[in-house]
Amino acid sequence: MELDKAAVCLSKLGNPARLAMFRLLVKAGDEGLAVGDIQKELNMPHSTLSHHISHMMTSGLLIQSREGRVLRCRLDYQLTNSLLDYLMEDCCKGLQKA
C-alpha cells in the first residue's frame, strides 16, 4: 500500500460514525450486514447513514451489493488487511541511523 491510499482510508475512518460502522462490519464478518441492520444497530437516520456509506465506499474499504431489495455492506478485507499491514510493517525494527 502507498502512503496516499493509506491516508485516504484513515481519513474516512477518522469520523466516529464511520469508525463505529467499520467496527460493526468487522463483527459481522464476511457476510456483512444489510443497510437496514446497520441503521438499527447504530441508531442512525437513513440519510446520515447513506452519507457515511458513500464516504466509506470512496475509500474502497466498503463494498456494497444488492440482493433483491436489500443492500448489503461488507468490508473489503483485502484492503483492510493491507492497511493494517502497512501501518505495522516497520514495527519494532528500530530507527536506522545515518
From TrEMBL:
Residues annotated as domain HTH arsR-type: 1-95
SUPFAM superfamilies in alphabetical order: Winged helix' DNA-binding domain
Entry superkingdom: Bacteria
Gene3D superfamilies recorded: Winged helix-like DNA-binding domain superfamily/Winged helix DNA-binding domain
CDD domains: HTH_ARSR (cd00090)
Keyword check for NAD: no
Keyword list, A-Z: DNA-binding, Transcription, Transcription regulation
Record keyword Nucleus present: no
Segments crossing the lipid bilayer: none
GO MF term set: DNA binding; DNA-binding transcription factor activity
Name the record gives this protein: ArsR family transcriptional regulator
